[in-house]
Every structure is written in C-alpha cells, then in structure tokens.
UniProtKB/TrEMBL annotation, chain A:
Species classification: Bacteria, Pseudomonadati, Pseudomonadota, Alphaproteobacteria, Rhodobacterales
NCBIfam families: PRK11650.1
Recorded family membership: Belongs to the ABC transporter superfamily.
The keyword Nucleotidyltransferase is annotated on this UniProt entry: no
Domain ABC transporter per the UniProt entry, residue ranges: 5-235
Classification via PANTHER family: MALTODEXTRIN IMPORT ATP-BINDING PROTEIN MSMX, OSMOPROTECTIVE COMPOUNDS UPTAKE ATP-BINDING PROTEIN GGTA
Protein name: ABC transporter ATP-binding protein
Domain of life: Bacteria
SMART domains: AAA (SM00382)
The species this protein was found in: Mangrovicoccus algicola
Single Gene Ontology MF annotation: ABC-type transporter activity
Cellular component annotations (GO), alphabetically ordered: ATP-binding cassette (ABC) transporter complex, substrate-binding subunit-containing
Signal peptide boundaries: none
UniProtKB/TrEMBL annotation, chain C:
Chain residue ranges for the region called Disordered: 1-21
Record-linked Pfam families: BPD_transp_1
Family designation: Belongs to the binding-protein-dependent transport system permease family.
Annotated keywords: Cell membrane, Membrane, Transmembrane, Transmembrane helix, Transport
GO-annotated biological processes: transmembrane transport
Domain ABC transmembrane type-1: 88-303
Record protein name field: Sugar ABC transporter permease
GO cellular component, one term: plasma membrane
Length: 361, 322, 312
C-alpha cells in the first residue's frame, strides 16, 4: 500500500542555519503519527514543510502518492490545526468553517452540509452563530479542528493543539481527538512536546532532536527499546536512572560500576554489542523497593533520601553508595528519610548504551 | 549534529533505507519536483511590489531632490531650465546668501540669526521640558499619590486640545508673569505643551522597570531625589534619547508658538524662513529660498537619519498619546 | 508601587485616629512637590485655559478680553462670515480626503513593506523622513514644486503637452488639493509605521490558516486582517483627525490662505482674529468650535478605549 505521506531527503535551512537535515519519513494510511521532541528541535518546521507553509531547501514530499513538493498548501489535501487556534476573530464559527469553502467556490448546499457534519461530529452546533471571542479555549480548539474537518481531506496536521489549554481540558480533548481519529480513520500528524499525549494518541512516535529523527516506532517500542540514551531519558517520568560503568562481554556478559556488578545473561543484546565503557539505564517503575526487591535477580542496599507521594503511587529517591536511584513504589508506603531500603531490579528490563555514541547495545 | 547523521546512530535512516517501498522507488525514479520551488525573480508579484515602492519612493524623495538641486543653481539657470534637472553649474552662492544675507523686513543678516535663535530656544526648552516631565513620570510611576492619575488624565486629554484654544490664556499668564515675548516665556510654553507626551513616555518607561529596584533602593533609605538620580537616571538613557529626539525635532519645527510668543529679534528659524520666502518685496530668488528651506530642515533631518530606530520608537510612543 | 497604593488605601479605610490627616498630606511630600509643574499645567493651562476661552467666547471682547456677555452673538457672526464658512468647507474637504488617503495609502504601503521584502529599512526611512520636517519646510517645497511657471506644470508642458494645466496654488477651486498633496507627503509615513506595527502584531498562524484554506492574500487582508486591525485604524483616525484640526503652519507657508481666501482654515482664522484682527471674541468662538470638533472624535474614542480596558 502506498504511504499516505512520504518525505524524502528533506532539508530545510533558514539562511545559513540548517534546521532539518536530510530527513526521511513515511506515514501509513490512517496512521496517527506523533512528532515529539523538546522545544526548538524542528517539529513545527517539519509540519510546516509538509503543509507547504515553508519553502523547503531540498528533498521531496509526497501526499497520497502525489508529489506536492511545489504545491500550494490549499491544494495538498491537508487540513491544519494550530496552537493559537488561528480562528478568524471577526467571523462567526460558521463563517470560520465555511470561509475557505466559499472561497474555493463550492456550491452552497455542499458547504452547508459539510459545516453541519463537522458541527455534529465536534458537537459545536449550538455555537455556530457565535464569534470566537465568545468561546472557551476548548470550544475554540474544536472550531479549529472543525475548520480542518470541513476541508474533507485525507491528512490532518496538528501543531500543539492542546498546549494553550489547562490540564483537565487537555486530557478531555485528548480523548476526543483519539475518538475523532478512530471515527474518521484519516492520517494525522500531531506535534507535541508532551510525552503523555504522544504515548496515548500515537500509532507511532517520531522522537526528534536537533532537526533529525532519533527514533521512529510504536509507543511500546519507544518505551521498551529506546534506540539511544536521548530517547531513553526523554521518555518516562521521572527520568530513567543512568549509571556509567563498564560492559564486559567476555564469557558471561556483565556490567560493572563502582560498588556494583550486574550479570546480563537475560538482557537482549543488539548485534553489535562489545565490551567497553557503557551506560546502564533502568526506569524507576522497574526498580522494586522494600519487600518486592527480594524477588529480583539484582539487589542493592540503600537508604531513603527523598519521598514524593503522588497518591496512587510514591516516588522515592534512594541513596546507594554515592549514587541516587529513583524508584516508583505502589500505594502509599510509610517511609522516612535515612531509613534503610532494599532495592532490586531485573536486568532484562534494563537498557544499555555505549558511552561513546549513546546508542543502544 | 554531524554525529547524529552517522547512519550508525540514526536507526530511522537505516530503517528507511531497508523499508523503501517499491512505490517510493518509483517515485524517486520518476523524480518530479524536488527541493526549492523555483521562483522567478521578476515574478508579477515582485514587479508590482517593488515597482509600487519604487514609484512611491520617488514621490517621497522628489521634494528633497528639488530642494537640493534648486539651491545649487544660479537664477538664470532656474529661469530657463527644469526644476528637476541637476544643476549644470554648481554654485554655493545661494547657500551663503540664505545663511548670511537674506532679508526679513529691515534685517538683512540671513537665516543665521534664526538658526541661532532656534538653538537658543531648542536647547534649554528640550532640557527643561525633559527634566520636568521625567520627574513627573517618575513621581507618577513610582510614588503613586492621590490624584496623580487624575491630573495625568487631564494632561493626556490636554494633548488633544487644539493649541488655539489655550493660546490666549497662555499669553495672559505669561504677561502677568512678565515673561511674554522673552526667551524664558517661550521655554515655559514648550515645557507646558510638550509635557503630555514626554510625561507619558517616562511614566510608561518607569512603570515597565522592575518594581524591586525601586523597593530595594527605598529599603536602603534612599529618598525621592536619591532614587531618581542614582537609580532611575542611569537606567533610562535610551528613553532620554527618545525624549530628546521628540523634543528637539518638535521644538525646532515649531512655528505657531514662535510667532505668538516671541518678538522679531527672537524669531526661531521656521518663522524667519517663512518671512524670507513669503515676503512680498523684492525679486524672488528661488535658489536662495530653497537653500534657506533646506537649511531649516537640516537639523531635524540629521537627527532623523542619525537616530533611525529610536526615532520610530519615539513617534510610536507619541502616536499612542495621539 | 502596588504596595504603596495599598498602603494609601489602608490609611484611608482605618486611619490611626489622631495622626491620619496630616500624615496623608505629608506622605510622599517630595513627590507631590515634584509633580507641581504637571498639576499646574493640567489645571491652570489645559483645564483653566480651555474653560476661560470657552467662557470668553460668549463675550464681546475685542482688543482686550472683556467680561461683557452677549450670548451666542460671536457664534452668529462667526457662521455668517464667509471666510469662516470657507475655512470649514476647506477643513471638511481636506479632512475627509486626508483621512481616506492616509489610511488607504498608509495601509497599502505597510502591507507592501510587510511582504518580507529586501531593503525594507531603506524604504521605511524614505517614507518616513518627511515626518521629521517642519510643516513650514514642507509647505515651501511644495509651493515651489507646484509653481506653475517653473514646477510640475511647466515641465509637463515642456514635454509637449502644451495645454496641460495643474496649478492648484493659483486656482481657487482646487487650491486646497495642493495643500492636501503636501500634507499627505508629510503625514502618510507615520500612518504607514503605525499600520506596519499593527500588521507585525498579527498572529502568524492566522496567515498560515488562511493559506491552508486557500484564501488569496488580498482577500485575507480585506476580510481578516483589516477587521483585526480595527484598534490601529481607530488610533490612526484619532491621530489624523486631531492633526487635521490643527492644520495651520502648512497653509501659512504654502499659500498664506490664498489665492484670495481659497485655502483658509479654522486655525488660521483664530490666529488672525486673535493676534491680527484685534477681534478676540471671534477668535475665542472659532477656537471653541475647533475644540468641539476634536471632542466629537476624541471623547467617543476615549470611552471606547478606556471603557474597553475596564471590561478586560
Ligand atoms: N523563521 C526562522 N528563521 C530562523 N530560524 C528559525 C525560524 N523559525 C524557526 N527557526 C529555528 O528553527 C528551529 C526549529 O524551530 P521549530 O519552530 O520547528 O521548533 P519546535 O520544535 O516547533 O519547538 P516548539 O516546541 O518550541 O514549538 C529553532 O531552533 C528555531 O530557532
Ligand atoms: Mg512549534
């Protein structure tokens, strides 16, 4: 099947500053792809290139098999939703939805039908006669989505659509967007720097850094097998525990750092693993503390350093030697600073990265 | 960045190469548009934009050009030729004459008298008005006191009142104070009528400064003047420059107050210029007139070209006031 | 300073019984003394002066102000003076044209400069420099350029159009347009700068949205951007209007009110009657009318501006 969107060797430079480097990406039909990365990594830039809002420096862009590299945004078959909503403030909601269609010369009945459908899907029918100023943030965002919806296109582009909303509303709209995707089954590319949004919405996530894609994969893949140290530290909260040390692949593979040694027979090594300086990573949720630790293959003695109760579970920073390790404990254990604590983990759930170039071993 | 593009450490690229679908292969073979959309430099759009801007620029520059070329021609050339044509024979005589010999009424010592009058008016007026307005702005912004805002509102509305309405009362006030017709009187007038905009400028600026600065200075025991001179002044150089630009150009260009509030021996340059050019006696010497006009415009033009962005900032601030 | 205000407020609500009144007066005494020039200007000159002029416009003052009230007599006389009526007509024509042209030209130029063009700074410098000049200078240059014997008209005739006539400064019917040309030359740059700032203040995503919607640029400007810039247009309108009412120096320099009385304007009428004609009553009445004209524009604007701010 032909991909919905294909990007070939895309390079984009603002003057002398190259923001996207030789980027390749394919998005399948009906796929929900999330572009995730820290601020300034080029997510919006990539999205604008796909939309045709930026003139690319080199490469090609295909949408539904058509080379749209030089095409105007309105003729690429895309709809776009912006962070600031970008609603036309002097027009009613209905005017916002229909302005583009009117301009494209669609028959009146067709316009009315599309607006009605979008309004029904997004449940904004009672708001049609209002102006954007008289809407709440969530309603505005729905109208913005509606403006993409009425275009009746195969590809939706979202640029941080929820980041102007408060936490509660963001969670609600996130669910709505997911439902919308399931209902419409069109391709969506969604830019965010919120990893929860990314994990919950995406079929696949592309993690970006400095204008390149660091890893492209399903949320599970990204979480379970981060391709490099950057991805490993970017995904997950609190961030993964990292310990620098040495990997020894002689006889039985093991990792050793000051005051600890971890046997790695159960770890799924990549093909090019070799002995040498390495970084050992383990997520806090994979570190067992207290009684649970005893059942783990690797155990450590530590002392409680800091406790952050979250209600459903509790984050503990424990001190083992001169190292700090975070652990996530279920429930609300009663812990006091300096109290001794047993930690344990399963090396099979660990992540190893070569120190020299941070890639996964 | 180069490191990241190494295929070893960029799994996506490795992946993309292996997953290349036959579709993509076809697409690459068929190639099609690639890279930057070719744009003709001489597109219709560009011709329209630059063409319009060029024509408009010519219209805007024309008067300056005419002033310069006319002032460098002799009278015979002006009578025969075209006002837009560059001078065939450049002469600086009109400039000399405009500066030192042009007549207004009985005086024939040229515009130099008006120039020096304008300097004598502008420098103290600008300094006094800026000092007073900056203190007012500082008092309003940092020492909020009862009624301050009310007076300030009156002041801002005052900026919209046509000067003609307040002209005569001002004459009476100055006459009562014994200042009518004197340099001091004119300085007072400029200070009074420049106050709304300059006060607004300083008030807004001082309000935008972090409040902690002022509080810290107070805690240290500094008083009104101590804070003004030792904390606020050193931080306000840019805004003082903007105020200087506004006031110097504004006062230099003033005509109305110059005619109403001074006597002929104190006439500022604009008034004298108008009297020279629009005097009915004698033969019209257009080249001298243009040299005189240009001379009068030279000071504000120099300030404008030298200050660039600050000038824009000044008029933007003025525009807010209206 | 917020703390300062709060302190004053507290002092007002629950004053320490004995010491309150003197302390409130003495609080920030230096600041109050330093603000005396502002207070005097606001109260004595702006408020007092205006009231004084309005009051004396109802008197029979001639050479000197005289408190002999004659009701609306000065206004009757004013509106039956041909020169005043022409001044008002001129002001109306000049005002309307200059309003429309400044706004339209200013906006179009700003939109052109906003197209990410090269040499933007150079163009901007050129369009704004006349604003730095005195109206006297502007008036005199345009007097020279529009001189029928040497200026534009003679040059175009020299090109072969023998019958070409463009002598606004000598033809009473169109003389006011000669002043309009000069006025626009000097003032449009400012409007352009204001509009440009307004355009730059518009969210870039609006432009992106309209491109995705496939709306041509001119339509985006007309139906989306211009409505969004309403506050800027209103500020510009207020600015231009208050400038128009003050129109004086330009006329004095360029035409002296001539030919005949073809380019007389109210501000000049005021000056001439107050300081030349020794007829103060007329001058006061005329200047009160000017005040009225400004008030009609400024007061609704201020209510809109400040009323709007209070609402949030
Ligand atoms: N017009 C421009 N000219 C020059 N550099 C630009 C321009 N627009 C963006 N950049 C640069 O390109 C880089 C990527 O910007 P981009 O807006 O794509 O970031 P982003 O990933 O969307 O970040 P955010 O999460 O903050 O929105 C940034 O370093 C930015 O400084
Ligand atoms: Mg962005």
């Amino acid at each position: 099947m032909q991909p919905s969107i294909a990007i070939r060797d895309l390079t984009l430079a603002f003057g002398a500053v190259e923001v996207l480097h030789d980027l390749n990406l394919e998005v399948g039909q009906g796929e929900f792809l999330v572009l995730l990365g820290s601020s300034g990594c080029g997510k919006s830039t990539l999205l604008n290139c796909i939309a045709g809002l930026l003139d690319i420096t080199d490469g090609q862009i295909f949408i539904q098999g058509k080379n749209v590299t030089w095409e105007e945004p309105s003729r690429r078959g895309i709809g776009m939703v912006f962070q600031s909503y970008a609603l036309y403030p002097q027009m009613t909601v209905e005017g916002n939805l229909s302005f583009g269609l009117k301009n494209a010369g669609l028959p009146r009945a067709e316009i009315a039908a599309r607006v009605a459908r979008a309004a029904r899907i997004l449940q904004i029918e009672p708001l049609l006669k209002r102006k954007p100023a008289a809407l709440s943030g969530g309603q505005r965002q729905r109208v913005a989505i509606g403006r993409a919806l009425v275009r009746d296109v195969d590809v939706f582009l979202f640029d941080e659509p929820l980041s102007n909303l408060d936490a509660k509303l963001r969670a609600d709209l996130r669910v709505e967007i997911k439902q919308l995707h399931q209902q419409l089954e069109n391709t969506m590319i969604y830019v965010t720097h919120d990893q929860v949004e990314a994990m919950t919405l995406a079929d696949r996530i592309a993690i970006m850094k400095g204008g390149s894609i660091m890893q492209l994969g399903s949320p599970k893949e990204i979480y379970n097998r981060p391709a490099n140290r950057y991805v490993a530290e970017f995904i997950g909260s609190p961030t993964m525990n990292m310990i620098e040390g040495n990997l020894d692949m002689q006889i039985t593979p093991s990792f050793s750092a000051e005051g600890m040694s971890v046997p790695l027979q159960t770890y799924a090594f990549g093909s090019d693993a070799a002995s040498g300086p390495a970084v050992f990573g383990i997520r806090p949720e994979h570190v067992e503390a207290g009684e649970g630790a005893e059942a783990m293959p690797v155990r450590l003695d530590a002392a409680v350093d800091l406790v952050e109760p979250l209600g459903s579970d509790t984050l503990v920073r424990a001190r083992a030697g001169d190292r700090n390790l975070w652990a996530r404990m279920p429930g609300q254990p009663d812990l006091r600073p300096r109290q001794p604590l047993r930690l344990g983990f399963d090396p099979a759930r660990a992540h190893l990265f070569r120190l020299s170039d941070d890639t996964r071993l | 960045m180069g490191k990241l593009r190494d295929p070893d450490c960029n799994p996506l690229q490795a992946r993309a190469e292996t997953v290349l679908t036959d579709y993509a292969a076809r697409a690459q073979a068929a190639s099609g548009p690639r890279g930057r959309k070719p744009r003709r430099r001489l597109s219709g759009r560009n011709i329209m934009i630059y063409g319009t801007l060029f024509v408009v620029s010519v219209y805007y520059l024309l008067p300056l050009w005419v002033m310069v070329v006319t002032s460098l021609k002799g009278m015979p050339e002006i009578r025969l030729g075209n006002i837009f044509a560059p001078p065939v024979e450049i002469t600086f005589e009109p400039w000399v004459k405009a500066w030192a010999e042009a007549c207004t009424g009985l005086n024939c010592d040229g515009l130099s008298r008006g120039f020096w009058n304008s300097v004598r008016i502008t420098v103290p007026s600008a300094l006094v008005s800026i000092f007073i307005a900056s203190v007012n702005g500082y008092a309003l912004a940092n020492w909020r006191f009862r009624g301050g805002e009310a007076f300030f509102t009156i002041l801002i509305f005052g900026a919209f009142i046509p000067y003609q309405v307040m002209l005569y009362p001002m004459v009476i006030l100055l006459r009562e104070a014994g200042l009518y017709g004197s340099l001091t009187g004119l300085i007072v007038v400029h200070t009074v009528f420049g106050m709304p905009i300059v006060t607004l400028l300083f008030r807004n600026y001082f309000t935008s400064l972090p409040e902690e600065l002022f509080k810290a200075a107070r805690v240290d025991g500094a008083g009104f003047w101590g804070i003004y001179f030792r904390v606020m002044l050193p931080m306000s150089l840019p805004i003082f420059t903007v105020a200087m630009i506004i006031q110097i150009t504004g006062i230099w260009n003033d005509f109305l107050f110059g005619t109403v509030f001074t006597r002929p021996n104190l006439y500022p340059m604009t008034v004298q210029l108008n009297n020279i050019v629009n005097s009915v006696q004698g033969v019209k010497e257009y080249n001298v007139n243009m040299a005189a006009t240009l001379l009068t415009g030279l000071v504000p033009l120099a300030i404008y070209f030298a200050s660039g962005k600050l000038f824009v900032r000044g008029i933007a601030a003025g525009a807010v006031k209206g | 300073m917020r703390a300062e205000a709060a302190a004053t407020g507290r002092g007002a609500t629950s004053p320490p019984p004995s010491a309150a009144p003197p302390r409130r007066l003495l609080r920030n005494l230096t600041a109050k003394i330093a603000a005396i020039p502002m207070v005097l200007t606001a109260l004595v000159v702006f408020l007092g002066g205006t009231v004084w002029t309005v009051v004396y416009s109802f008197t029979s003052s001639r050479m000197l102000p005289r408190a002999e009230f004659v009701g609306l007599e000065q206004y009757d006389r004013l509106w039956s003076t041909r020169r005043w009526v022409i001044s008002i007509e001129n002001l109306a024509i000049y005002g309307l044209c200059s309003l429309v042209f400044s706004l339209v030209i200013g906006f179009v130029l700003a939109a052109l400069l906003d197209q990410k063009i090269r040499y933007e700074n150079a163009f901007r410098t050129i369009l704004l420099y006349p604003f730095a000049l005195s109206f006297i200078v502007t008036g005199l240059v345009w007097q020279w350029i529009l001189d029928p014997e040497f200026g534009l008209q003679s040059i175009i005739r020299g090109l072969g159009f023998e019958n070409f006539t463009f002598d606004p400064l000598y033809n009473p019917d169109i003389a006011i347009f000669g002043i309009l040309i000069a006025g626009l030359w000097q003032g449009t740059g400012l409007i352009m700068i204001l509009m440009l700032a307004g355009l730059r203040g518009i969210d870039g995503e609006i432009w992106k949205a309209s491109r995705v919607d496939g709306i041509p640029a001119w339509k985006t400007y007309l139906f989306i951007i211009v409505p969004m810039m309403r506050p800027v247009f209103i500020t510009a309108l207020v600015l231009i209007t208050s400038g128009i009412v003050k129109l004086y120096d330009l006329v004095v320099a360029q035409t002296g009110g001539g030919p005949g009385i073809a380019t007389e304007v109210p501000a000049k009428y005021v000056y001439d009657y107050m300081f030349g004609g020794q007829n103060l009553g007329q001058g006061f009445a005329a200047s009160t009318m000017m005040l009225l004209a400004v008030a009609i524009v400024v007061i609704p604007w201020a209510m809109l501006e400040f009323g709007g701010k209070r609402r949030g």
